[in-house]
Amino acid sequence: MEIPRSSYYDYRDRRKKIDVERLRLRAKATEIFNKSRQSAGSRSIMSKLRQDGEIVGRFKVRRLMKEANLVSKQPRPPAYKVAKVERPDIPNHLDRQFDVQQPNQVWCGDITYVWAQGRWIYLAVILDLYSRRVVGWSLSEKVDADLTIAALDHAYQLRGQPTAVTFHSDQGCQYASKSFRQRLWRYRIKQSMSRRGNCWDNAPMERVFRSYKSEWMPSAGYTSFDEAQKDIGRYLMDYYNWYRPHQRNGGRAPAVAEKNPILLSGNS
């Protein structure tokens, strides 16, 4: 094959040597991957490694993941049903303007369901669009207005009782209820609603739930309500807010980006 004998022996000798630096990087990549419950992909792992001062590119991270047999969970694509009818008494003030310049300008809220102890329980979450930080949440066995009010109360107190906030959600009956709207009025929060059946009008919230269910939630659900409450709180307020890289924030976690703000992109 016209290859110099010295080149062959050099290649063979190099294969026998242990690349300590590569092993170190692979171990760090594996640690990040495991901390994400096997959900982090090459982009997320690269962002975390760079934040730790490592000089590494995405292609190298992919090779490290392949060497360590790290395969990221991939979420199923959502099927959105689009409608064009708006609720006349609560307009869509947000109108997909997801690029917000300051904290506590626009909050988004939504509800999803979680399997625990052989039955469905319900999770309400509130997101600050500025850095995509989770600022409030609540878990309940009932999907009623009290669930959404508890999440709103949590956000209002946690964020220091802000004023001039716009709250956006879908047209669920919990958000359109008299008791929830009265709570918004008490907090002087302006209400905005998506068009009926149009999930893209509240895309940042859809992304949060997709991330939680594909990255963190146990495939078989939780064994009890208490276990679900502790694990969901850990994901939302710890892992998602302080550790999970977000493209909107240039690869930084929402709470980290909010604490040390830089120019944020307009990604949802």
TrEMBL record:
SUPFAM superfamilies linked to this entry: Ribonuclease H-like (SSF53098)
Pfam families the record matches: HTH_21, rve
Top-rank taxon, per record: Bacteria
InterPro entries xrefs: HTH-like_dom (IPR025948), Integrase_cat-core (IPR001584), RNaseH-like_sf (IPR012337), RNaseH_sf (IPR036397), Transpos_IS3 (IPR048020), Transposase_IS3/IS150/IS904 (IPR050900)
PROSITE patterns given in the database record: INTEGRASE
Domain Integrase catalytic residues, every copy: 99-262
Cited NCBIfam families: transpos_IS3
Protein name according to UniProt: Transposase
